[in-house]
Write a structure and sequence with these properties.
Helix content is 31%, strand content 23%. The protein is an alpha+beta fold. Strands 8-12-7-13-9-14 form a six-stranded mixed sheet, with helices on one face. A four-stranded mixed sheet has the order 3-6-4-5, with helices on one face. A two-stranded antiparallel sheet has the order 1-2. Helix 1 packs parallel to helix 4 and helix 3 packs parallel to helix 4. The longest helix has 18 residues. The protein is globular, with a radius of gyration of 22 Å.
Length: 368
């Protein structure tokens, strides 16, 4: 005699499709606000549609794509129950990367994996994505919300993003154009951005603490206390400051005809393992550093974490952006004009260092 099968619905198994539908409804207006003229239709179809008719005016249009996530910064966001800005982190990590080739981001897609969907919670996350897309000037044309019961705890989630941009090949930036004598300019970061948070979490003592527990509540209160060494900001505020999106001022610079040789987005691996990606094989970057001090202002939160971790200057520069989230390499004769153009666009550029003959490495003045 066979056992009668029990009636089990998808919802019984932990997937709430109705709540997923409400989540989609909650974000429709946010998505619509990111639209560009090239977008065809809206969200809800099986694919995002984007016209490339405008590219016919380019001599040789090159599509450039990028994908990334936010990393373990999300663990801190969940612990602090602050979800409104991590979506901007996601967009920034993708669009700043393709900007390094001189590309304009055209559209963006996101992927949210979550233990249990709640429409209001999802709206907070996606609002950050939409805000980031508006800052970058790209359209949010679609995405996916995937509920993963049994794989993730209900409150856990992870983010991934994907962007496509375009640049006319004659205007594409190429590290091969970098020469000894070139000047390296930096644009300020808002802090740690979205890299190094596994170290950060260890330093501030939140490793292994689960959101919603009494221990999490106690730690959250501690992290929300204003600190004099952070200029009156709390660690919670400083550590969750969203990653800067550099697209609009830099595209304005490039469209104005500025002779930029290369750009580096300073992400995981810090200055040491990102600036080298913008160098020609026979060129080194010589970055201004005097012991633990850089040649420019470092955000207090980075200094604080480096001190608490006991990092050497080399370790710090191989982990964090040190206050320079994007670097622009130009010929010395063009430095003044590029600075002026960036200042006119609302930026505060500073000198990072210079290029010298070498083998494609990043070196520091206190090592010479």
């Amino acid at each position: 005699m066979t056992e009668t099968a029990k009636h089990v619905t998808y919802e019984d198994a932990g997937v709430d499709t109705a709540e997923g539908g409400r989540a989609v409804d909650a974000i429709k207006q946010m998505v619509a606000e990111t639209s560009r003229p090239e977008v065809i239709g809206g969200i809800g179809g099986f694919g995002g549609l984007f016209s490339v008719a405008a590219l016919k005016d380019m001599e040789d249009p090159v599509l450039i794509s990028g994908t990334d996530g936010v990393g373990t910064k999300l663990v801190l966001a969940q612990l602090l129950d602050r979800h409104e800005t991590v979506g901007q982190d996601l967009v920034a990590m993708c669009v700043n990367d393709i900007l390094a080739s001189g590309a304009e981001p055209l559209f963006f897609l996101d992927y949210v994996a979550i233990g249990h969907i709640e429409a209001a919670h999802m709206a907070k996350i996606v609002k950050g994505v939409a805000d980031g897309c508006k800052l970058a000037g790209c359209a949010l044309v679609g995405g996916e919300m995937a509920e993963h019961p049994g794989v993730m705890r209900p409150e856990d989630y992870d983010l991934a993003g994907f962007t496509v941009g375009v640049v006319d090949r004659p205007r594409m930036l190429d590290p091969k154009n970098v020469r000894p004598g070139d000047v390296i300019l930096g644009l300020p970061s808002t802090g740690i951005h979205s890299n190094g948070y596994s170290l950060v979490r260890r330093v501030i003592g939140v490793d292994g603490i689960l959101p919603g527990t009494p221990e999490a509540t106690e730690k959250r209160a501690e992290l929300e206390v204003p600190l004099a060494e952070l200029g009156g900001s709390s660690l919670a505020d400083a550590l969750l400051a969203p990653t800067r999106i550099y697209v609009k001022p830099v595209l304005e610079l490039l469209r104005g005809g500025a002779p930029v040789h290369a750009i580096a987005h300073i992400t995981g691996g810090g200055i040491t393992e990102n600036l080298n990606r913008a160098l020609a094989p026979d060129v080194d970057a010589l970055v201004e550093r005097d012991g633990a001090s850089m040649g420019w202002d470092v955000p207090p939160v980075i200094t604080h974490i480096c001190e608490q971790a006991g990092l050497t200057p080399d370790e710090a520069c191989k982990t964090f952006n040190m206050g320079a989230g994007l670097m622009i390499i130009v010929a010395p004769k063009d430095e003044a004009a590029v600075r002026e153009a960036l200042i006119a666009a609302g930026e505060k550029p500073f000198r990072v260092g210079a290029c010298v003959a070498g083998s494609g490495r990043v070196r520091y003045t206190d090592q010479v």
